[in-house]
Specification:
The chain is mainly α. The chain has helices at about 5-10, 10-20, 25-45, 50-70, 110-115, 135-140, 145-159, and strands at about 45-50, 80-85, 120-125. It is globular and about 45 Å long. The protein starts with a helix and ends with a helix.
Length: about 160
């Protein structure tokens, strides 16, 4: 059995090969991703919105497609976060601003629709690094300021 940490560092193309060969199921992979997010998100502030239940529903559908032998997209069964710059139908879309904390997207953006059509499983909306996030932090929401900061935090947390 591969650990959650090992799966977290496994390249996407390898994860897809593991799904196609039934070495791991989309459900198992998504559960692993969610456990890893549960562990790391409080330390790294990765997500502004988590969509674990939606992700698990999508993972079960992805697993059924594998078992039926359906054609699989290039990201089939791969769990991924998606930046909060894009709307995701039925999910809070803040644009990185507390002003929009109650804004629920009515549709998926075109890029997000394409990622989903490729088979990706969206596990949440990733926090944005911008001046707008200072308002979110003031409200008690931890956000990552920059890729350099997240890199430094990851090095500290992951060793």
């Amino acid at each position: 059995m591969t650990s959650d940490r090992e799966l977290g560092f496994t390249p996407t193309h390898k994860l897809r090969e593991m799904i196609v060969s039934k070495e791991i199921s989309p459900v198992e992979l998504t559960e692993s991703h969610i456990r890893r997010a549960d562990e790391l998100d409080p330390k790294l502030g990765i997500f502004i919105t988590r969509t674990s239940e939606l992700a698990m529903d999508a993972a079960r559908e992805a697993e059924a497609a594998v078992m039926r032998g359906d054609g699989l997209g290039p990201l089939h069964g791969i769990p991924v976060p998606y930046k909060d710059t894009e709307p995701m139908k039925g999910v809070v879309w803040t644009h990185g601003s507390l002003t929009y904390k109650n804004n629920i997207a009515e549709v998926d953006s075109i890029p997000l629709s394409r990622v989903k059509a490729a088979g990706a499983i969206i596990t949440g909306k990733a926090a944005l690094a911008s001046e707008k996030n200072k308002a979110l932090e003031a409200a008690g929401v931890h956000v990552v300021e920059s890729p350099a900061l997240i890199g430094a935090k990851m090095k500290e947390v992951l060793g």
